[in-house]
Specification:
Blueprint: H1 2-12, H2 33-45, H3 58-74, E1 82-86, H4 89-102, E2 111-115, H5 121-129, E3 132-136, H6 146-152, E4 157-163, H7 175-184, E5 188-192, H8 200-205, E6 222-226, E7 238-242, H9 245-248, E8 253-255, E9 263-265, H10 275-310, E10 316-318, E11 326-331, H11 337-346, E12 352-354, E13 363-367, H12 376-393, H13 400-408, H14 416-426, H15 444-452, H16 455-469
Parallel strand pairs: 2-3, 2-4, 4-5, 5-6
Antiparallel strand pairs: 1-7, 6-7, 8-9, 10-11, 11-13, 12-13
Helix pairs in contact: 2-10, 3-10, 4-5, 6-7, 10-12, 11-12, 11-15
């Protein structure tokens, strides 16, 4: 047993760090070791508890109702609001779409209206539940266009979506106008606040200019907010809130059509560990309202300082003025964003590359956490050096043969042989063939190669890569 734990620690040493404020995507770090310890201990204490039956584990029921109640207070919810704890933002989004679809059983081919910047989880929900996504172009500031959204609504629309903020650019959509247009037509309006839900209310309290987006906005029928982001809880918790119990009712699933127990679920899962919920409850109780306000102050100070530092670097700029804690950066053409990401990684900072889309160039994504605040000067120094190195290196050039190979591939008929040919051409496999797949230390060339592909081809290539990467290790 001890040997297994030793092996775990050894394997984990190759992972991105989850503490220290240097991983600016995927993880959200409060920078408070005691809070991290409390969350982990709570997860461990409830790892064996099962949220399948709330009557069997009443402590889980109590924690869930208290967590939802705290969220309701934070998000200006009416007394009628109800909510459910889920495993993450994607499950919350899936349930919001499924519930909207099932609330209108008479519509044979339901649709949902999405700004083009809505999270990809909505496309996943569309794929799973047969709800057609109607994508509406956004404005030059990357915020949703309310008039275009309203024009896209029709008799088949079961849901309209807005973001607070959008992941790619960190801006809040004009929720008031979008929700009003949806309400006028009797359509549900969901606000995806998975990122901003637990930090934007504190931003407003601190006097920052935050567009209206909570249940205080008439016409908002549901909101998703993740606890494992800016509530700084352990991974695996989000909340989906509905304005009334009637709006939530189609979310529930029950089945007595078999000889076992009558299945009753409030989420996509049946069996679910009580650990993540306990971790979230413990962290929220430990931090309290004052603790979250303090962390919000830290994270927004970091955002402001980072923006000011970027303003002194002529080669890069923010894509759009961020409303929250997410910053998207673009380059002036003297360097490419993929090389900047590599150079940041070489200096111990992880920032996320974002591919070009619909005429917009590739960008660099930065998710700022409270833990980043003490290290902003180091971050800006590293960014300055990364940009200078990227300028010196010059733009990434994809081999013309590789580019031609990609252009000839059919995303609907991508075979193992096709994928192997691309990997070989890109230098990602060698003499070991299919068993020798390994990522290079620097990803700029790979990302530039993917950036040449159409979205459909990019999806096909990454699915093939994931399939190859996750094939079993046999003894």
């Amino acid at each position: 047993m001890t040997d297994a734990l030793t092996q775990l620690r050894a394997m984990q040493s190759a992972d991105l760090p989850v503490h220290g404020g240097r991983t600016l995507a995927y993880v959200y770090d409060s920078g408070l070791p005691d809070i991290d310890r409390i969350g982990r201990e709570a997860v461990a204490a409830y790892a064996g508890s099962n949220g399948l039956d709330p009557t069997a584990f009443p402590s889980l029921l109590r924690m869930e109702t208290e967590v939802v109640g705290t969220a309701a207070d934070l998000l200006d919810a009416p007394e009628t609001v109800v909510g459910t704890v889920t495993s993450g933002g994607t499950e919350s989004v899936l349930l919001a779409v499924q519930t909207a679809r099932d609330s209108r059983p008479g519509i044979e081919r339901p649709r949902m209206v999405l700004p083009a910047t809505a999270h990809a989880a909505f496309h996943k929900a569309a794929h799973y539940f047969g709800v057609e996504p109607v994508l509406v172009p956004v404005g030059p500031d990357f915020r949703a266009d309310p008039a275009a959204m309203a024009a896209a609504m029709d008799d088949r629309t079961v849901l309209v979506v807005a973001s607070a903020p959008s992941y790619a650019h960190g801006v809040v959509d004009p929720v008031t106008a979008i929700a009003a247009a949806a309400a006028e037509r009797g359509i549900r309006c969901h606000v995806d606040a998975c990122i901003g839900g637990w930090v934007l209310p504190y931003a407003a309290r601190l006097g920052r200019d935050v567009p209206a987006w909570t249940f205080a906005v008439e016409g908002v029928t549901s909101i998703s907010v993740d606890l494992h982001k800016y509530a700084y809880a352990p991974k695996g918790t989000s909340i989906l809130l509905h304005r009334t119990p009637e709006l939530r009712r189609p979310q529930f699933f029950a089945s007595a059509a078999w000889p076992g127990y009558t299945m009753l679920n409030s989420t996509m899962q049946s069996t679910k560990s009580g650990g993540p919920l306990a971790g979230a409850w413990a962290v929220m109780r430990s931090l309290g309202d004052a603790g979250y306000e303090r962390l919000a102050r830290d994270v927004f100070e970091a955002v402001d300082l980072i923006r000011a530092g970027i303003g002194k670097m002529p080669e890069i700029d923010v894509v759009s003025t961020p409303d929250s804690t997410l910053i998207a950066l673009t380059t002036d053409g003297s360097c490419d964003p993929f090389t900047v990401c590599d150079e940041m990684a070489a200096r111990g900072w992880y920032v996320q590359p974002q591919m070009s889309y619909a005429g917009s160039p590739a960008t660099i994504h930065v998710s700022v956490s409270a833990a980043t605040r003490p290290h902003v000067e180091e971050l800006l120094e590293a960014l300055g050096k990364a940009v200078a190195a990227a300028v010196a290196t010059g733009p990434v050039a994809v081999d013309p043969g590789v580019a031609a190979f990609i252009a000839e591939l059919d995303p609907l008929a991508l075979s193992d042989d096709d994928f192997d040919g691309l990997l070989l051409a890109a230098g990602l496999i060698g003499a070991y063939g299919r068993e020798g797949l390994a990522l290079p230390q620097r990803m700029a060339e790979v990302n530039a190669m993917l950036d040449l592909a159409t979205p459909a081809m990019r999806e096909a290539l990454l699915v093939a890569f994931l399939d190859r990467l996750t094939r079993p290790t046999r003894s």
